[in-house]
Amino acid sequence: MSLESCRRCPRLVAWREEAAWHPPRRFAGERYWGKPVPAFGERGARILLVGLAPAAHGANRTGRMFTGDESGNFLFAALHAVGLANQATSVSRGDGLALSGAMLSAACRCAPPDNRPLPAELDNCRGYLEADLAAMARPRVLVALGALGFDACLRVLAQAGAAVPKPKPRFAHGARVAIGEDVVFATYHPSQQNTFTGVLTQRMLRAVLRRAVTEAEKSSG
To answer: Is the pLDDT of residue 77 over 80?
Structure first.
């Protein structure tokens, strides 16, 4: 089944389509994407950023990861600052934004109620993340955006045959975990809950991203 035609999770299908049919006033009249959201960026690059899921009125509206909401504004400002994006803003699929040396994916491809996909829904979606991982250059550098993104990174690497350390690594902002030939970095998710309260600052996020860039450059020889 192709990503855009996927309807494996009835709860997510209903939610993403409800959001598209009944947008808030600020987006009234816009044509929503309202489908699973594909990965965005440079396939064959070495850095894979893994978020949680599209926002109901962000990527579910625009059809591009982290595009059209405050989380995306925060993330792409940091990506631009470290040289992974050609511009600091992400408004729509036609705005000229491009990533260089990185691809942006997610553990769940449909907007979930309360921004919280269920374990079974994450399981249904894992094959799409596996395909994104397989498309990257080796060795790979994964950047997990948030605790659930971190867990998704560990699971997808384990599914690909890597030996995840035991006990299972714990999420912490700035953590670095080597898994086989690959490396996973962790950062707090750039949600408004984190960025508006100062839990995650631009300086903090950029520091993690710079470490990922350095790791990728080192591993490319």
So the answer is: yes
CA nearest to 110, candidates 58, 37, 41, 40: 37
Positive or negative, the CA dihedral 11, 13, 16, 18 is negative
Which residue ranges form the domains of the chain, and what is each CATH number? 10-219 (3.40.470.10)
Long-range contacts, stretch 158-162, CB < 8 angstroms, 24+ apart = 159/126, 159/130, 160/130, 160/133, 160/134
The contacts of residue 11 (CB under 8 Å, 6+ apart) are 112, 113, 118, 121
Q: What is the pTM of this model?
A: 0.95
CA contacts within 13 A on the Cβ side of 2: 3
Edge-to-edge strand list for the sheet holding 40-41: 40-41, 102-106, 47-51, 141-145, 182-187, 176-179
Per-residue model confidence (pLDDT) at position 219: 75
Closest CA to 105 of 177, 184, 52: 52
**Cα–Cα dist 158/160, whole Å:** 5
pLDDT greater than 70 at residue 217: yes
Query: Could you tell me which of 59, 128, 54 has the C-alpha nearest to residue 97?
Result: 59
Minimal CA–CA distance to 140: which of 122, 162, 108?
Answer: 162
